[in-house]
């Protein structure tokens, strides 16, 4: 029996390391917002401590059903008050370290879900 990998039209994360995240064959060396529908943009924070309410206000404007938040090298939770814009739009947010967020994003995107990953890449730490 011949096995073939599943095929998906969704944008996928093909790898990650301490100083990079690979999306559809291209390496990125800064924090990113990645969407299964093709969204790919820099996210203006290089450490968890740089997050502000504005980062989550921006996420609330995205057309998605779920946001996977990669909090950097370890799992950390944002200030609950900052999540109000997401709750107002009934958007789910799941928090995990960035490596787990990359894996979880790929699984959900591969299932055809409309998902966004907001990934902090803590370089040089």
TrEMBL record:
Pfam families for the chain: DUF498
InterPro entries (alphabetical): MTH938-like_sf (IPR036748), NDUFAF3/AAMDC (IPR007523)
Q: What is this protein called?
A: Xcc1710-like domain-containing protein
